[in-house]
Amino acid sequence: MTAGARTEGSPTPAPATAPVSALAPVSAPAPVLVDAEAEAGTGVRLSAAGVAARRALLAHPALLLVGIVLASLNMRAALASVAPLVGEMSAAFGLSATASSLVTSVPVLFLGAGAAVAPWLGRRFGTERVLFAALLLLGAGILARVLPSVYALYGGGVLVGTAIALLNVLMPGLIKRDFPDRAAAMTSVYTGAMITGATVAAAAAVPLEKALGGGWEASLGSWSLLAAVAALAWLPQVLITRGRTGRAVRAVPAGGARPVNVWRSALAWQVTLFMGLQSLWTYVLIAWMPTILADHGMDRSTAGVVFAFNNLVQVAGAFVVPLLAGRMRSQRPLVVLVTTLVAAGYAGLMVAPVEGAWLWSALLGIGQGGAVGLALTLIVLRSGDAVTAAGLSGMAQTVGYLLAAAGPLAAGALHQATGSWTPPICVVLVVCATALAVGLLAARNRTV
Q: CA separation (Å) from 287 to 81, 220, 229, 233, 411?
């Protein structure tokens, strides 16, 4: 399949390009468009040097797969490792419930802010380089959070959120670019690895604190090692693609059609709101689930294990729901399923938090995992072409995470004001109802 293209700032269309499989050597000094696939999630096409680098990269698929898995393990670990330790962190700095919620809300806020610049960085420096830099930034942010300063605690959260945003936005595009025939399977791999990282981080937070004998700082800081290992695994990808030129051309939809402005599409906003609302209920749990259980009398270590179980169960939902969604013309039944499961789990936490903790954790986990998998799948299914998909992904993650950032902060403030977890949970139940409404609209068999 070939597609027309135009250079940035010029209305003159460039000649149609040949498929990658039909490439011939190019000797012209100017950048020549030779690749029929867009650069990972950035909306640009590669030059001759870029295609050569990409071919070299794909000659080592095992190396690439290891890099993807290790990077994905980091996508939630730095966030999930905080929740079981929030109580001690708050005590160490004398933080109120509202201020404590910022420990989680600040990274989520910058998940949205970072998502806005990720495509530009990918265009400017190349996907592999940005992913490598993001992992280094993540490790630095984790270490900054354990410095003896409340400003470093929040500043480190800014770095952590920005780094994870870059990983979130660029990883799906990289998978679509390099594994086009196995995109669904690879999406399951990276999503599963992401949730596994969160599970291990949540379960190990308190035991690591005790084993290392250094308080919460040692436990939290230890996750910088995982980021360092992942960065080391990505270094070969950076070296392989070092010849990639930054002079590329912006892609346009097939046939030279005018690119869709997703910001003016009602359907795009419905997909975006579903992404944001399901992220909101997830990050409220990441921030407060162990605290809710501990406040009702559960041992702190046990609360951490229940929280880890919640993350583990998410793997099932995240794997199965996208596969089902791809086989259905309308995903409305799945929207009803995941929102109902999450609402039931939250209602259980309000009525019998300790007695039914494992059951509520399971219901929430399946619903959460299914919801995030469904949200990511809807971005692809509701897009008419790859360029629109890249634009919708950036919009959904930018707006969605900015919306989600309000969740932990609002829940903490409401709990502080009322002295009870019932009002915050009631608000989340309203969020579930709203997600159901917009999700039913987003799940219709239409494209942006």
A: 10, 15, 26, 30, 9
Sign of CA dihedral 16, 20, 22, 23: positive
Instruction: Map tokens 């998502």 to a residue.
Output: 115
| Contact of 86 with 100, CB cutoff 8 Å | yes
Residues in CB range of 76: below 8 A, 6 or more apart: 164, 194, 195, 197, 198, 201, 286, 311
Q: Rounded CA gap, 161 and 158, in Å?
A: 5
pLDDT in tens, 54-99: 565 555 577 788 888 999 999 888 888 887 888 888 888 888 877 8
In the beta sheet, which residues pair with residue 6?
13, 250
Cβ partners under 8 Å of residue 268, min gap 6: 262, 382, 392, 395, 396, 448
Q: How confident is the model at residue 172 (pLDDT cuts 50, 70, 90)?
A: confident
- Is residue 226 within 8 A of residue 196, CB to CB? The reply is no
Q: Give the amino acid at 376.
A: L
- Contact present, 253 and 4 (Cβ < 8 Å): no
Quote the CA–CA distance of 416 and 96 in Å, as a whole number. Answer: 8
Pick from 104, 109, 111: nearest CA to 87: 104
Digit-coded pLDDT (tens) for 377-417:
888 788 877 667 767 877 888 888 888 888 888 998 899 89
When mean pLDDT is compared across 209-213, 231-235, 273-277, 441-445, the lowest value belongs to 209-213
Distance CA 331, CA 61 (A): 33
Number of neighbours of residue 95 by Cβ within 10 angstroms: 18
- Nearest of 315, 317, 443, 313 to residue 371 by alpha carbon: 317
The answer to whether 424 and 280 have CB atoms below 8 angstroms apart is: no
Closest CA to 138 of 57, 91, 197, 51: 197
Other beta carbons less than 10 A from residue 54's beta carbon: 23
| Residues β-bridged to residue 441 | none
Burial status of residue 301 (CB atoms within 10 A of its CB: 0-12, 13-18, 19 or more): middle
- Is the pLDDT assigned to residue 440 strictly greater than 90? yes
Element of type H or E holding 21 = none
**Tokens 């041992």, residue located:** 299
Side chain identity at 228, as an amino acid letter? A
The two structure tokens encoding residue 408? 């932990």
SS3 at position 249:
strand
Structure tokens that stand for 225 in this block: 């090692």
Locate 19 and state its tokens: 């498929």
CA distance 429 to 427: 5
